[in-house]
Write a structure and sequence with these properties.
Elements (H helix, E strand, L loop, with lengths): L2 H18 L9 H8 L9 E2 L6 E2 L7 E5 H6 L15 E5 L6 E5 L2 E2 L11 E5 L2 E3 L4 H4 L4 E8 L3 H4 L6 E7 L7 E9 L4 E11 L4 E18 L8 E18 L2 E14 L6 E4 L9 E3 L4 E3 L11 E2 L6 H4 L14 E18 L2 E19 L10 E19 L5 E20 L19 E23 L2 E23 L15 E2 L3 E19 L2 E12 L2 E2 L7 H9 L6 E2 L2 E14 L4 E21 L4 E22 L5 E14 L22 E13 L3 E12 L2 E2 L9 E2 L2 E11 L5 E8 L7 E6 L11 E5 L4 E9 L1
């Protein structure tokens, strides 16, 4: 949807709202309420909107971890992957091409190569669920609160939330003028960040907030491959957000946010090491059936934070495919994201309100890297261009009665278009000769166009028959239609002939259609045991639509599909979840102690999995028959008798395993094996201590230890790579003014420099039945910051 149309839509929302607003009632702003109450030491209340209403964290029958903006700022948590240490069972990693990121909760999620389908853990930005995991590359800033909702959340957040939601809410305009500025330098990666905001009123009814963040990292990691353009790969990020809030009366508020994210780096592969496998030998790269063998250049030390990522071989970098520039064979990535959100909250009467939420998401990325990883020169080129445009509109009516019955009724519409374009060297045929027709040294160029129309209706009834009992029942109906088209404008002429038999240049597929519909109910009961404790039980179903695989290559496999005319072989089924959760939420010891406990058991049917074949150099999308995730969580927070000291702990037990036949891409039945990225035990302990130093200074100390048990890092065989259990340590110390007018901090994340594996897959161009090297996606190492911050 063009940006001018979104602007007109937003204006229309505002005009419509102004025409119908009465003079009474109010629509609360959840972010403002949260920011005002989250740090209230009298009641410790944290406000969340997990059920699209403003509710205290302790009143919601959902397992939630909530992190305030001050905590994020103090600990330099500006990247989603840094959240993993704060939320047990949450696994976040930044990848290269494909989806660009990976999120999983309680052992359920998607890999960072899964560009064919949405993540099972939804990303919600200011009320807009976005489809692209590339946002985990960009990070976040000027945040009011982050809520991590565990378990299926389809009723209130819609599709793509079968495992949970990471909800990020940015700060809003303030009632009086405020300004802040902070700058930091990071010693290990030699990076610096400058961030600032101004916020305040323009008039009695109009407020603004402008926030900017710039980050540059010179040595994200060291690339030991010889003669590369960038021995130290770095990155650069620019975030800009503007917010306007118009509130002429208690019954009407209009808030619009405009975001820009610019991300640049020296290649798409991030923190990927090569593990030499059980035989301990660095395997050569085998191309063209053994006609070309490229020696491995890397050593077998996969945990020294030194990487081996060669630039392109000269034979493969001379000329890009028709219509694409290959940047002279130098790795690069450029990403631009525009996200606009307009929200109108309208009080239609004292007990009835209307919320209109309009979203527009425009993502475009271009990049190149070489997925042979470890040869003495780069092979396996991936030159890609991805573009996603998404328009969403949500309408919600909700009641706010004093009586025992309240309700919510809403509708949602999404239109999304995705271009997934890639030129690749998977065969590397130009080692023999360039294309005789175009002179290109690439194997092919392919484009997948996908258009999606999704529509849903949802509603919820909330009944309180007594002061201590709450019953809630709701359902969401979703209908989704997808249309996919494949174009292959260029294939190397040699590959179109026997024995390869690839598609010929100029191929265009017919429209490939997929549609599905689903009902996702949710029922909960909550009983208030006392004024400070309640128990709850919830039954839920979740849904994530299937679709058409966009990883199909113009190889002989696709040629056979084209010849048969049966494109259903490219489709994958929808993913569903069903199960229950029971829990206890309590606030004890005069509100000084918060103890929350939950037990869960969910079954995921047709779990969507994308895997990589390191010999055929082919991704495949499939559905696992059934996966069960069950376990429990304990969260504890205690404001100790010592002034200013808060102690916290969280423990999670997760038993997630395949419970039905699932034949992986390696031909192995994984039935009975544990799910990937699902440690049995995980948890953390932390302290946060603020204490005065004389009359004019405040000292703040923070420490956190995060533990993860061992887990499989892939879903291929019964003996995939296992990440052993590990512990990471974070800490910071700061000195500043008691009113936080200024603060000087020393911050350390992952202080012991512990390197662990988020995901594993076979290293491309392995020799069949012999090669066993693996590509390991890892975390960032130790980071040490010094930061100076001012507020006015």
């Amino acid at each position: 949807m063009p940006k001018k149309h979104l602007f007109l839509s937003s204006c229309a929302v505002g005009l419509f709202a102004s025409s119908v607003m009465p003079s009474q009632a109010s629509a609360q702003d959840p972010v403002k309420v949260a920011s005002e109450r989250a740090m209230d030491e009298d009641d410790g209340a944290i406000i969340v909107t997990a059920r699209r209403r403003d509710e205290a964290l302790q009143d919601v029958p959902i397992s939630i971890t909530s992190i305030g903006g001050e905590s994020l700022e103090k600990s330099q948590i500006s990247k989603p992957e840094a959240l993993a240490a704060r939320v047990p069972t949450l696994n976040i990693a930044v990848g290269g091409s494909g989806s660009g990121g990976q999120l999983s909760l309680r052992g359920i999620g998607s890999s960072n190569v899964s560009a064919a389908f949405d993540s099972a853990v939804a990303l919600d930005f200011d009320g807009i669920v976005v489809s692209s995991m590339r946002l985990v590359q960009a990070g976040f800033f000027d945040v009011a609160q982050i809520d991590v909702l565990k378990g299926p959340q389809s009723l209130y957040f819609g599709k793509s939330a079968t495992a949970g939601v990471v909800s990020i809410r940015s700060a809003d305009p303030t009632s009086s003028f405020e300004a802040g500025l902070r700058g930091s330098y990071e010693f290990e990666e030699k990076g610096y960040t400058a961030e600032g905001y101004v916020s305040g009123p323009i008039s009695d009814s109009l407020g603004y907030r402008i926030a900017v963040r710039y980050n540059k990292v010179d040595e994200l990691y060291f690339n030991a491959a010889p003669n590369v353009a960038n021995p130290y790969r770095g990155e650069e990020n620019l975030n800009i957000r503007g917010t306007l809030e118009f509130e002429p009366s208690d019954s009407f508020k209009f808030n619009i946010k405009a975001n820009y994210v610019g991300h640049r780096n020296d290649g798409e592969v991030r923190h990927t090491q090569i593990f030499c496998g059980p035989n301990g030998v660095a395997d050569p790269l085998v191309l063209l059936g053994g006609a070309v063998v490229v020696p491995a250049g890397y050593d077998c030390n996969a945990f020294d934070n030194t990487f081996w990522l060669p630039d392109s071989a000269p034979q493969l970098s001379r000329k890009g495919p028709p219509g694409m520039d290959n940047n002279g064979g130098v790795p690069f990535n450029e990403t631009d994201i525009y996200l606009l959100r307009a929200r109108a909250d309208i009080g239609l009467s004292d007990s009835l309100s209307l919320a209109l939420v309009t979203g527009y998401f425009d993502f475009e990325s271009r990049g190149q890297d070489f997925y042979g990883y470890g040869g003495v020169f780069g092979v396996g080129t991936d030159l890609n261009h991805n573009r996603t445009e998404q328009f969403t509109q949500e309408v919600r009516f909700s009641s706010d009665n004093d009586g025992p019955l309240n309700w919510l009724l809403g509708g949602f519409y999404e239109r999304r278009s995705i271009l997934f374009e890639a030129a690749q060297n998977a065969v590397n045929i130009s080692f023999l000769a360039p294309d005789p027709v175009t002179g290109s040294t690439f194997d092919w160029r392919r484009l997948h166009f996908t258009k999606t129309d999704a529509f849903s209706l949802f509603g919820n009834l909330l009944v309180e028959p007594t002061d201590r009992i709450e019953l809630s029942a709701g359902v969401r109906y979703t209908k989704e239609e997808k249309v996919n088209r494949i174009e292959v404008p260029y294939v190397h002429a040699v590959l179109s002939r026997p024995p390869f038999n690839f598609l010929r240049s100029g191929f265009q597929s017919p429209q490939i259609r997929f549609d599905d519909e689903n009902f996702s109910p949710e029922i909960s009961v909550k009983y208030e045991v006392s004024n400070n404790a309640q128990v709850y039980a919830v039954y839920k179903k979740g849904f994530k639509s299937g679709g058409i695989d966009n990883s199909a290559l113009p190889s002989s496999g696709l040629s056979a599909i084209v010849a048969s005319g049966d494109y259903s072989r490219l489709m994958f089924d929808s993913e569903t979840a069903e199960g229950f959760e029971i829990g206890l939420k309590s606030t004890l010891a005069q509100n000084r102690l918060r103890l929350n406990v939950s037990l869960f058991n969910y079954v995921f049917s047709d779990l969507q999995i994308q895997s990589f074949d390191p010999v055929a150099i082919q991704y495949s999308t499939s559905n696992a028959g059934e996966l069960r995730s069950r376990g429990g969580d304990i969260d504890l927070s205690w404001r100790a008798p010592v002034d200013g000291l808060t102690l916290s702990a969280a423990v999670a037990y997760t038993d997630a395993e395949f419970t039905d036949t699932y034949i992986s891409n390696a031909g192995v039945d994984l039935n009975g094996r544990a799910a990937p990225r699902a440690p049995k035990w995980s948890g953390n302990v932390s302290f946060d201590w603020n204490l005065p130093v004389g009359d004019n200074l405040k000292l703040s100390l923070f420490g956190l230890a995060n533990y993860s048990g061992s887990y499989f890092a892939d879903a291929t065989t019964l003996n995939d790579y296992v990440q052993n259990d590990y512990v990471t340590l974070d800490a910071n110390i700061s000195i500043g003014a008691p009113d936080d007018r200024w603060r000087l901090s020393l911050i350390g994340n992952n202080l012991t420099d512990k390197i662990y594996v988020n995901q594993a897959s076979g290293r491309p161009f392995r020799q069949a039945l012999i090669g066993d090297d693996l590509a390991l996606t890892q975390n960032r190492g130790r980071q040490v910051f010094v930061e100076l911050a001012f507020k006015y």
